[in-house]
Amino acid sequence: MNRFSITEALGDAEDPDLAKARDGDDAAFTRLVAPLQRELHAHCYRMLGSTHDADDALQDALLRAWRGLSRFEGRSSLRSWLYTVTTRTCLDVVEARGRRALPVDLGPSSTHAVVGDTPLTEVPWLGPYPDAGLGGVSAGPDARYEQREGVELAFVAALQHLPGNQRAALLLFEVLGFSAAEIAAMMETSPASVNSALARARRVVAERVPARTQQQTLRKIGDVRLREIVGGFSAALERGDTQALVALFTEDVTWSMPPMPHWYRGIEAVTDFAVRVPLTGCGSWRHLPTGVNGQPAVACYLWNDEAAAHLAWSITVLTLREERICEVTSFIGAGHFVPLELPVALP
Predict the structure, then answer these.
(1) d(C-alpha 279, C-alpha 282), whole Å
(2) Is residue 320 classed as helix, strand or coil in its secondary structure?
(3) CA distances from 99 to 40, 57, 195 (A)
(4) Which residues contact 50 (CB under 8 A, 6 or more apart)?
(5) What is the pLDDT of residues 229-262, one digit of tens each?
(6) CB-based burial of residue 2 (10 Å sphere; 0-12 exposed, 13-18 middle, 19+ buried)?
(7) Are strands 263-265 and 285-292 parallel, antiparallel or unpaired?
(8) Mean pLDDT score of the chain
(9) I need a labelling partner for 9 at 20 to 30 A (CA). Which of 41, 113, 157, 328 fits?
(10) What is the CA radius of gyration of the chain?
């Protein structure tokens, strides 16, 4: 047990709510786990790639923890024990449901706009995660990624290409800072197996994640310039201004719209799509700035005559390189607005 966990374990042992919870006091158990729920939920999202799956997995994990609290002997911290229960719960979900995807995982990009593209509902799609769910988390000395870096789209998408055990080991070690020995105890394996899983996971992730994280890019850009870029993107769509929109993009920009299977790469293909679909083929847009996956995003609302209002359409996440947008990911569906506590209509 490392020094960080020893300190936690001593604190757990002195917590009167722990004894009460062991005796069946559900209010005491709620008080015990409340400070950890936000970070446990984020861990579930990283493992599963879906806010809704994270909701279900965390609820199941806490129920397992409540029923098994008598088996918690205090040899590790309560936090470590809860991460053990939560990780094993997520591994059961991964085994049952497989991985989640983005359109880029399904096939090559389209060179021209596909008008009337239809949703591919049988695919389990990767979903967005609200920045409000990212609280301050105390990580151990081995943690490599910040909490926000740990939910960036490129990183979470890369995790989906890992088997469950490698995914769990990487997150527990490099995002949460648990030691290889602690992870081995959590996953009922050896430290050597954990280190082997970490080595394989790092190779896969390194191939799929840019060297510079979005957090590093955003810090360099600064808040003022970032607001200008996000505001410019929204204003260009609302005005139907192709020139202003394209000026924000890199030459190799991509645009994808899960659950739509088609996606676009390169300024020509993305421009053709933008002109023929959102700029001229959809109607009136309104936007609200928001934060998703530790990245700038806009909530997109499309006018509906019957409702006489702009209705929730997509959560569009922007990935930046230098001061240009290199990736647009539009998660289509009003269901994505609820976890972000955004209105589903703008009158």
Answers:
(1) 7
(2) strand
(3) 19, 15, 23
(4) 100, 124, 126, 127
(5) 999 999 999 999 999 999 999 999 999 999 999 9
(6) middle
(7) unpaired
(8) 92
(9) 41
(10) 22
Judged by DSSP in three states, 300 sits in strand
Q: How big is the CA angle at 27 (ends 25 and 29), to the nearest 5 degrees?
A: 75
HEC letters along 257-297: CCCCCCEEECHHHHHHHHHHCCCCCCCCEEEEEEEECCEEE
Alpha-carbon distances of 223 from 136, 188, 219, 226, 323, rounded to whole Å: 20, 44, 8, 5, 12
Condensed to tens digits (0 to 9), the pLDDT of residues 62-102 reads 999 999 998 887 778 999 999 999 999 999 999 998 899 99
User: CA–CA separation, 30 vs 212, rounded Å?
Assistant: 39
For tokens 């994280």, what's the residue?
A: 213
Is the pLDDT at 10 greater than 60, yes or no? no
Question: Does the pTM of the predicted model rise above 0.90?
Answer: yes
Helices (H), 114-213: 153-159, 164-170, 180-187, 191-208
Quick check: 332 and 299 in contact, CB under 8 A? no
| Pairing label, strands 324-332, 345-346 | unpaired
Rounded to an integer, the average pLDDT of 122-147 is 80
Task: Provide the pLDDT confidence category of residue 8 given band limits of 50, 70 and 90.
Answer: low
Q: Is 142 exposed, middle or buried (0-12, 13-18, 19+ CB in 10 A)?
A: middle
Distance from C-alpha of 292 to C-alpha of 124, rounded to nearest angstrom: 19
The answer, yes or no, to whether the previous bond of 16 is cis (omega within 30 of 0) is no
Quote the DSSP letter at residue 108: P
H or E segment and range at residue 255: strand 249-256
Strand-strand pairing, 285-292 and 295-304: antiparallel
Q: State residue 76's pLDDT score.
A: 82
Residue 153 and residue 127: Cα distance in Å, rounded?
A: 9
Tell me: pLDDT of 142 over 80.
no
